[in-house]
Inverse folding.
């Protein structure tokens, strides 16, 4: 895997009615596109290279992939959506990581570890739960001690006993359940009057995305329903880690068709900057229209 392109950046900020969302990038790297997106054919990208390069892809077919959290301020509450790789965990891949900047980066915009009210994990893969906990004197403790951690009940029940290497580690999820810091919630759980969960299964059985609606404006934080903007054009290019590729493809097609030509801001959890944009029709298909913060 090529080395990281950027680390520790609060790259963008959006306002959706009264809700403020920021993207905090823990890590962003170039990776081979066909290594992540099954069936991807670089030769088929010609009509899309004008918007894919340089933000989302280089000239050799490598794709930009960000590992980032979305920081949401809604109704007086601070919500962290997904907590990236974390520090000190045994990851299933040999990744050259130095992520110790993450807590300070969040604190710089008022999301200090003591200030966060809610941590929501869209699913329980290792790159979405890492900063749930921090190693303190040899034991794993909640990174955000005053937060309630929300895990999808269906997601938790599935991954608890599954040996898949992409599953959550014990110290990032089970530790929080055991100490009472976590709450298992339904896939349509309401976090605030402006922020709620919506089911987007396929990548994992209980995967959820996050819908924001405030003062007539809307946004959707995708989680891993989609990994890269090219999947809006080609939803059939399924992500390698998708648990159920057929369901994941069907979910992408349904969600993108519903969002096409609307004003709903899509915030891609793994999208490189610009991570936000909108789905637009293009001929007989769909395309991505990036939007700066």
């Amino acid at each position: 895997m090529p080395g990281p392109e950027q680390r520790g950046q609060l790259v963008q900020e959006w306002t959706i009615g009264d809700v403020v969302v920021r993207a905090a990038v823990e890590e962003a790297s170039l990776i081979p596109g066909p290594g992540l997106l099954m069936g991807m054919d670089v030769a088929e990208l010609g009509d899309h290279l004008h918007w894919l390069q340089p933000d989302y892809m280089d000239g050799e077919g490598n794709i930009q992939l960000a590992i980032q959290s979305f920081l949401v301020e809604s109704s007086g509450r601070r919500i962290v959506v997904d907590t990236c790789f974390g520090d000190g965990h045994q990851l299933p891949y040999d990744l050259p990581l130095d992520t110790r900047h993450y807590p300070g980066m969040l604190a710089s915009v008022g999301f200090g570890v003591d200030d966060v009210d809610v941590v929501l994990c869209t699913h329980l893969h290792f790159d979405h739960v890492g900063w749930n906990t921090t190693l303190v004197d040899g034991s794993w403790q909640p990174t955000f001690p005053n937060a309630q951690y929300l895990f999808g009940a269906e997601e938790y029940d599935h991954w608890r006993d599954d040996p898949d290497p992409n599953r959550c580690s014990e110290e990032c999820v089970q530790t929080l359940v055991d100490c009472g810091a976590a709450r298992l919630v339904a896939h349509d759980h309401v976090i605030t009057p402006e922020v709620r969960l919506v089911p987007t299964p396929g990548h994992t059985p209980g995967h959820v995305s996050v819908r924001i609606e405030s003062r007539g404006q809307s946004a959707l934080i995708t989680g891993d329903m989609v990994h890269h903007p090219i999947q809006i054009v080609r939803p059939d290019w399924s992500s390698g880690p998708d648990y159920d590729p057929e369901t994941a493809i069907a979910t992408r097609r349904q969600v993108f068709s519903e969002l096409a030509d609307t004003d709903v801001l899509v915030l891609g959890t793994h999208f490189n900057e610009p991570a936000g944009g909108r789905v637009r029709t293009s001929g007989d298909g769909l395309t991505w229209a990036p939007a700066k913060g």
In short: Residues 117 and 147 are 4 Å apart (CA to CA).
